[in-house]
Amino acid sequence: MTTFLISGASVAGPALAYWLQRFSHTATVIEKAPAPRPGGYAVDFRGASLDVLDRMGLRAAVEARATRMGGMDYVNESGKVVARTSETAFSGELEVLRGDLVEILYDATRDGVEYVFSDSITRLSEDADGVLVEFERGAPRRFDLVIGADGLHSTVRRLAFGPEQDFRHDLGYAVSVATVPNHLDLDHTGRLLSLPGKTVGAYSARGNTEAKALFYFATDTSKASKSPAVDRRDTAAQRQLVEDTFTGIGWEVPRLLSELRVADDFYFDSISQIKLDSYSRGRIALVGDAGYCASPLSGMGTSLGIVGAYVLAGELQAALTDAKDRRADDVAHRPGSTPAAAHLRAFAAYDAVMRPFVAACQKQAVDGARWFIPGSRAFLALRNLTFRLMPYLPWRKLIDELPLKVGNAVELKQYEARRPLPAVPPR
Fold first, then answer.
1. Alpha carbon distance 49, 228 (integer Å)
2. What is the pTM of this model?
C-alpha cells in the first residue's frame, strides 16, 4: 500500500484522495485553513469532467446543488440591456458553487482519508525511500509520494520546483469576487457592465437568496509584470485597489462597491496561468491549478482539476499494479514501499494525457479574455453587436459548442478501482 500526502483540500486534492482510496492507497490531505473552505464563485463542468463525476458516483449529488443559471445580460451604465449570452457560455453543462462542490468531495472522502487542517508544509526532503515532510505545526512524517493540489500559489510547487514567478504567466487582468445581497432581484441570471478594460456585475446564487459580485479589470501591461501591484496577502490594499479602479462608474457599481467593503468572503487575485515543462519531479507531482492553472477566464479550472485527479490516480494505480504483477526489477519488496520506477512511469503517462488538454484550456482563456474584458470601445461595440446577432447567425451552434469541444479534448481511460462507490446521497 502506497502512502500519499496531498497538499490542498479544495477541489483537486479531495478528488485525488477520493480515487486513491478507491484504489486502496492511504491518503492524507493537509490544508492550512481550519476547515473545508466555503464560499467562492460558481464553477463549471464541461465534457470529460462530467464523465469523471459519473465514474465517481457523485453526479447526482452535484446536480442537486446546481445553480441552474440562465443566460447573462450585459447592460450599459444606465442599466439598459445591450446584449445577452446563452446559459452555456457562462455556466457550462453543469454549474455549482465552489463551496458546495468542496463540501460534496469532503463528505465523499472524510471516512477513508486523513484530513489535517490548520497546518501546511514547510520542507520536502526526498530520498530513495520516499519524502520526509516537515510541517509548520505538526511533527515530521514520511510519505511515499507527495502531491501538490494547493492552487495557483502552490507551496509544494515552490518547494519542489522553484519560485512561483518562474512558472506563473500573468494575462494582464485581476479579479475580485464577494457574496453580496441580491438587491437586483436576479432570478437565476446575472447582469454585467463592460467598459474598456473592465467588467463588473453580479449573478444570483443559492436559489436567488444572495448574489456574487464580480470585478474584472485590466492591470498595467506596460510593466514587466502584468500582475496587480499589491501584496496578495494584503486584503485592505486589494479592496482599495478594486474601489479605486471602479469608482466613478454608473449603474449599480457604487452599491456593489459598498457591499464589497463589508463582505466577509472577499477574494482577489491576478488572472494567471501556470506553465511547467513537467508536472512532476522525482516523487512529487502537481495536480489542478498548482500544475496547470488556466485562469478563471478559461471556465475550465474545475474540469482540469477533476480530470487531472482521475488521470493521475489512475495512471499511478496502473503503473503500480503492473509493476507488482510482473515483479519487475525496480519493485522494492519491503512492505509499504513504492516501486521506484513505477511512479515515474505513472507521472510520465499522466503528463502525456493532460498536456494537450491543458493547452486547449489555457488557449481558451487567452482567446476569451478580450471578449469578456474588451480593451477598447470599438471592440466593446463589436462584441455587443455579435452577441445581439448571435441567435440569427448560421454558425451560432458551432460557437456555443466551442467550450464543449475544449471540455472533451482529453481521452479518458477506464481504470480499475478496488473499492465500491461511497454512499453520498444528494442534498
1. 32
2. 0.90
